[in-house]
Design a protein that fits this description.
The structure holds two protein chains of two kinds. Helix content of chain A is 23%, strand content 37%. Chain A is of the alpha+beta class. Chain B contains eleven helices and no strands. Chain B starts with a helix and ends in a 6-residue tail after the last helix. Classes of the chains: A alpha+beta, B mainly alpha. At the A-B interface, strand 6 and helix 2 of A face helix 7 and helix 8 of B.
């Protein structure tokens, strides 16, 4: 059995929306089952309104589940108020106390636990060193930049050595360059302190950069759970394939199912790909999906590849690679990214050329339509 | 942008307002130092005797004492209740909070004379003796709206996840209030207290119905107007009151402004 820092069992959170007779029930989180392994950098990823922040607030204790139970380190916590849970939060807008200097902000949790003063000082110093703000203790939060405030918020949470650190889009307000630097630094800090991080973001690139595990959420459900490479290479459904990275989608009908994969009819052509969903039936509509960089353009189809025919609609040169938009016989179009490397078998095409779009069967997936 | 075109009619208007507003006050100060019982020009000579008279008058000093006591007590209670009300209105999504707010600020629009009479009847019915305590109780009621409005405007201004952050770091709800909310709101709390104090200290209509024998300063002042020879002393006292009230009001306004952005201090 895996060692979970946090576990959600059948957790549902319903909010009432509207007023009086028109009251509507909105499921922010729907019968969620989720285990967050100890010591990992775990990300809840999804578009806004998908329930990721509610999930975080449920773990922190700011919301109570409508049904189901949450376990932190194996103990049920639904009836335990936030101040008694072994978790700390880094808030989206930092939420530093404006009337206290940096050192007192960081010492806040220790002061409440009545940690002796000299030990407090020592721990605060250590925490500020960890976030590289060692000599900023006497500054007021208003005298710090956004990035520095973010570090103080992190130190203020980490100094309490929580079992789980919750981070609610903590980098959202920073500019791109600083955000990239902080992503790497956060990951390093997590590895250094070994505390379980639960990180909420809508930025798929950020999630891929930092996480050990990612739970992709939408409509209050976890749609797929896995490490970044698995999510990218083997998306379990169309939403995940679309949300993480760029994907091509082609509609087709299942023609036959064999051990090796599924044969899919797209108009007059037949293509084969490994099964992503074992519940496929003959004749049903399905979606074929593949990443743009996993495809190539050729005049003729080489052996041991899969192919669809089409004509080049658009060519965009973007330095390291060229982006072709190809219109298929079925009328759908796909994006193909061809690297501008020195490989001799790369052919150049221009608008209007008749081409074969080719790929290796194992790089494609067939999903329920 | 140029506002010059509007400057001259605007400044004439302003001048008139200032004249109307401040001429009587300036006269008050001038006559308080005039060596004559009648308040007419030309001035007779400079004297401090009216001010000396004030401090030799035990009745008057007692009235000052009553006013201070009522003012202090009623504003303290009004500030505490106002804070609680403001937290309830701003922080909790109460059903019918707009009704609660409307009822809380109703004393702002009830004429004090009518309010005084009705409290007189009520206090007689339920057996509260006419006294400084009764007047103080009335002043709590008329001060609450001011305290409530000042404090809730401050509460609206700061993010409520500061309280969540405090609780997340181990503070109980009350701990979060005491360590975070109240300190951040403290300029607003003090401003509310001082404003309530000036309201109570100035208030005549309600007090005149309810104080019984514990005359407050305004009540005592009004009673002295029957004696022409004491008029200059009343004027001197009014000058003192005016100075104190204006100082407190200016201080309150300064507090309210610094309280809007406590993060900028530091």
């Amino acid at each position: 059995m895996t060692d979970y820092a946090v576990e959600l069992r059948n957790v549902t959170k319903v909010f009432a929306s509207g007023r009086g007779a028109k009251t509507d029930e909105v499921y922010a989180v729907k019968e969620m089952n989720l285990g967050i392994p100890t010591g990992q950098f775990f990300t809840l990823l999804g578009p806004s309104g998908c329930g990721k922040t509610t999930t975080l607030r449920l773990i922190a204790g700011f919301e109570t589940p409508s049904s189901g139970e949450i376990y932190i380190q194996g103990k049920p916590v639904s009836r335990i108020p936030p101040n008694e849970r072994p978790v700390n939060t880094v808030f989206q807008n930092y939420a530093l106390f404006p009337h206290m200097n940096v050192a007192r902000n960081v010492a806040f949790g220790l002061a409440i636990k009545r940690v002796p003063r000299d030990e407090q000082e020592h721990l605060v110093k250590e925490a500020l060193e960890l976030v590289q703000l060692a000599d900023m203790g006497r500054r007021m939060p208003s005298q710090l930049s956004g990035g520095q405030q973010q570090r103080v918020a992190l130190a203020r949470a980490l100094v309490n050595q929580p079992a789980v650190l919750l981070l609610d889009e903590p980098l959202g307000a920073l500019d791109l360059k600083l955000r990239k630097a902080m992503q790497i630094e956060l990951k390093h800090i997590q590895e250094q302190v070994g505390i379980t991080f639960v990180y909420v973001t809508h930025d798929q690139e950020e999630a891929l950069t930092m996480s050990d595990y990612i739970a992709v959420m939408n409509f209050g459900l976890v749609l797929q759970l896995g490490d970044p490479a698995t999510l990218y290479k083997k998306p379990a459904n169309k939403f995940v394939a679309d949300f993480i990275g760029e994907s091509n989608f082609i509609q087709g009908k299942v023609e036959s199912i064999t051990k090796g994969g599924i044969r899919l009819r797209v108009l007059d052509e037949v293509i084969t790909a490994p099964v992503a969903d074992s519940n496929m039936t003959m004749g049903q509509n399905a979606i074929f999906t593949i990443r743009p960089e996993k495809m190539m353009l050729k005049t003729r189809q080489p052996a041991s590849t899969e192919a669809l025919s089409g004509s080049v609609q658009d060519v965009v040169y973007i330095g390291t690679d060229t982006r072709y938009v190809v219109s298929l016989l079925s009328g759908e179009s796909v994006v193909v990214r061809v690297q501008n490397g020195c490989s001799p078998d790369i052919e150049q095409f221009s608008r209007g050329d008749q081409v074969k779009v080719i790929w290796l069967p194992e790089d494609a997936r067939i999903l329920a339509g | 942008m140029s506002n010059h075109r509007f400057a001259s009619p605007g400044s004439i208007y302003l001048l008139l307002v200032y004249l109307l507003l401040y001429t009587p006050i300036v006269l008050l100060f001038i006559f308080s130092f005039n060596n004559s019982t009648s308040l007419v020009f030309p001035l007779k000579g400079f004297t401090l005797q009216w001010y000396v008279m004030i401090f030799k008058n035990p009745e008057l000093l007692k009235a000052v004492g009553n006013s201070l006591m009522i003012g202090f007590g009623s504003s303290l209670v009004a500030t505490i209740l106002g804070t609680m009300g403001a937290i309830a209105i701003v922080r909790f999504k109460l059903a019918g909070r707009s009704i609660f707010l409307a009822v809380s600020v109703l004393p702002l629009v009830i004429p004090y004379v009518i309010f005084g009479v009705s409290l007189l009847i009520l206090f007689n019915e339920i057996g509260i003796k006419l006294s400084a305590f009764a007047a103080g109780l009335a002043h709590v009621i008329i001060s609450i709206p001011y305290a409530l409005l000042i404090i809730s405007s401050r509460l609206v201004g700061f993010p409520d996840n500061l309280e969540e952050a405090a609780m997340d770091l181990g503070a109980s709800y009350w701990g979060a209030l005491l360590r975070v909310t109240i300190p951040i709101c403290s300029p607003a709390l003090l401003a509310a207290f001082l404003l309530c104090f000036t309201i109570s200290f100035d208030e005549y209509a309600i007090a005149s119905f309810l104080v019984g024998t514990d005359a407050t300063l305004p009540v005592y002042l009004f009673s002295q107007l029957r004696f022409p020879t004491r008029l200059p002393m009343v004027v001197a006292l009014a000058a003192i009151l005016m100075s104190v009230t204006m100082t407190v009001m200016l201080f309150t306004e300064w507090l309210r402004r610094t309280g809007q952005s406590p993060a900028r201090k530091g």
